[in-house]
Amino acid sequence: MKRVAIIQEAPCVLDKEATIDKAVASINSASAQGAELIVFPEAFIPGYPAWIWRLRPGGDWGLCEELHARLLRNAIDLSTNDLKPLQDAAKQNGVTVVCGMNERDNANSQSTLYNALVMIDPDGEIVNHHRKLMPTNPERMVWGFGDGHGLNVIDTPVGRVGCLICWENYMPLARYALYSQGIEIYIAPTYDSGEAWIGTMQHIAREGKCWVLSCGVALERKDLPKDFPNIDELYPADEEWINPGDSIVVSPSGEIVAGPLSKEKGCIIVDIDVEKAATSKRALDVAGHYSRPDVFELRVDKSRQSPTVFKTER
User: Which of 2, 16, 22, 132 is catalytic?
Assistant: First the structure.
């Protein structure tokens, strides 16, 4: 049995350093309770830009600019030591950490944001870096398109772990890319919630015959910074919850074994039998004996995409 933890806590919205400190405290706490794999929500650092679902498309230009500038300043730059506190916490506790973030591009324009996540191993090393392939609806005004570079399943001390972010999980080919790498623990950090999303997580568990950990965003009005612009217009004072969370753990049979944790902050800690991800494939293995490679073939480009290629003259 392996012990896993889902952290359903609000970030310190638009404050990178404070959110990282909060994440470190959560890692220490979950590890003290025996967790070996610790998962944080989508865009946890420095928070999911929930305001995009309230602003008028093409309107509220000044407000969009102000909030985007703050988000950009507090995004993670992986060419720096931004994540060193998380890496140190993973190493000191000997745990695997998966954390969502707003990532600032450091290779091209240095101004594009990505909805990204990293996996940090028990040695404190970043062993996978994934950018959301397709931002959803108004998210495209915040984040750039990711690529296949992070569509990896990683061997960890708790099992073979892979991740897709939010509505990427509705992309059958993206899911299949993970199934075909022998995924055992499927992680889905998300802003989505509710019965339809939970049903999707159960379907993925049954389809891939893997454990599914869905880590939702729990956000209340009081979690927004006191200087959040136009807060009373975007989030009226009588609106307590902005997003309920609904984190869950689902077994390879599709059974919900923990959660949903709804309109509540906290941590789901549960022991899972990782071997069930293999034994449950006896009847259905969509990337193995139940596939038809003579009929269907999936090709995945894992190269990191770039708009510019520089060649030095000889």
Answer: 132
